[in-house]
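Case study: Transcriptional regulator with XRE-family HTH domain.
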Amino acid sequence: MSNSDLVPEPNIGALRLNLARLRHDRGFSFDELAARSGVGRATVVALESGKPRLARDQTATTGTLITWWRLANALGVDLGDLLRPLYEEGPV
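Here is what the predicted structure looks like once written out:
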């Protein structure tokens, strides 16, 4: 199998930027988005920043489908619109 046959890596960096932009556009603090979505504040911060919640020697969380669904609903966007940046080319 050649490299061109492989599925491309998702652009997690673009997803994080989209989450930050949507949160900022709505004027939500981390605390407010956490409260509206039912997702823990530390998780919201980790998803947006790309930094691990606890152990600094671990990779940051990319969340679960349920987490992203809750965030999309709290931000008032379709899940597909929130996740669309995963398909963008560029640094991951």
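For the exam, be able to explain this: The radius of gyration is 14 Å.
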